[in-house]
Amino acid sequence: MYLVTNREVRGGKPGFDAFGEKPNPKGPHELRFAEVLKSESGYHINILDDTLSRVEKIALDLPVSKSAYRSKLVARNTFDKIRREKTNLLLFVHGFNNNVKAVVDRAFGLQQQFGVEVLAFSWPANGGGASGTLDYKSDKKDARASIGALDRVLDKMRQYLHVLRQEELERIRSEANDRYPKNAETRDEFLARAIQEDCPFRVTLMLHSMGNYLLKQLLKSTLYSADELLFDNVVMVAADTNNKDHREWIDRIEFRNRLYVTINENDSALRFSRIKGGSEQRARLGHFPYELYSRRAVYVDVTGASNVEDSHAYFEGDSLKNDNLKKFFIKALNGKVADDDLDYDASRNLHSVSP
After folding, report:
1. Taking 80 as the threshold, does the pLDDT of residue 222 lie above it?
2. Are 116 and 1 in contact (CB under 8 A)?
3. Do 39 and 120 form a contact (C-beta atoms < 8 A)?
4. Is the pLDDT at 65 greater than 60, yes or no?
5. Using DSSP, how many helices (H) and how many strands (E) does the chain show?
6. Is the per-residue pLDDT at 129 higher than 50?
């Protein structure tokens, strides 16, 4: 699994100690990649150089004399694995008070539970520290400073997905022409079928807790450049951002399939986050089942569903003993329609996961 981060990376430090709590000293927009391998003995962290070596450039058929960035090889390796294992891609953005180990633990859990390939984006949340008001406000400040880094991640993904899909399309077209040089109708049928079979993977964005606040700040900024379609689904889980006026920015999110906003009215972390922010902190989007006015979002209420209780991370742990909830996340995080089996309350514009 790959991790991309705008945290400081401290050379010479072993394992997770290589990642600091502050932004990259070159600036909060700077990105570094790490490869994370998991075995029975634990994790192995491989901090990757920013640029590719001569050998790596040769392997990618790139000019040896020109610089090439690490993101190109990460994208190639990730897409090759997705096609080989016939999985889907999930970009995961974490929330408040998460250190890198917690992010990696959660990312591997998502892979195991939902059968997706995860690319984790980690911003410098104050992981491991006290979780009081000062740390909460500090993390909100770090989130705002990280919007450029997230925008760069989205832009790189968009570029490489476009290149990959063009390469696949050209390969399939060439094969179709070779097979049916004189039969245009059969050639077109083969082309459509082969595209579906050979390029089946979907791409989903999952944001947890304050990760949604990070996206909100990006959408409201002049940096935002993600107007082109990138994701099949966007899944906003336990969003730690204001419910009030959320339609103004949430309707700017582009997606092919669904935008899901999950809500747990009993979410203990969101109740406390409202207190931490002071008197100006309004009801949070992830725990307030009213004023759900976006016409593009599908709001999903998990309140009262068995095993959820007051969970803030109901996509893992005991919450997944609820088969209906697990089924929802399997579909949603794999870029599929996940609300077709849910009950719908038109008076509140709210879908509900059955107990």
Report:
1. no
2. no
3. no
4. yes
5. 10, 13
6. no
Q: Residue 162 and residue 250: Cα distance in Å, rounded?
A: 25
Alpha-carbon distance of 309 to 350, in angstroms, equals: 19
CA distance 65 to 47: 24
Residue 237's beta-bridge partner residues?
208
Q: Facing residues of 89 across strands?
A: 117, 203
CB atoms within 10 A of CB 352: 20
- Alpha helices (H) along 128-243: 133-145, 147-179, 184-198, 211-220
> What Å distances lie between residue 137 and 74, 116, 237, 239, CA to CA?
33, 32, 20, 16
pTM here is 0.90
Q: Tokens representing 253? A: 């999110």
Q: Which of 47-56, 273-282, 312-321 has the lowest mean pLDDT?
A: 273-282
- The β-bridge relationship of strands 32-39 and 19-23 is unpaired
Coil/strand/helix, residue 66: coil
φ/ψ (deg, to 5) at 51: -110, 160
Q: What is the mean pLDDT of residues 309-337?
A: 97
The predicted pLDDT at position 133 comes to: 55
Query: What number is the average pLDDT over the span 216-220?
Result: 93
Burial class (CB in 10 A: 0-12, 13-18, 19+), 316: middle
Residue 50 DSSP label: S
pLDDT-based confidence at residue 276 (cuts at 50, 70, 90): low
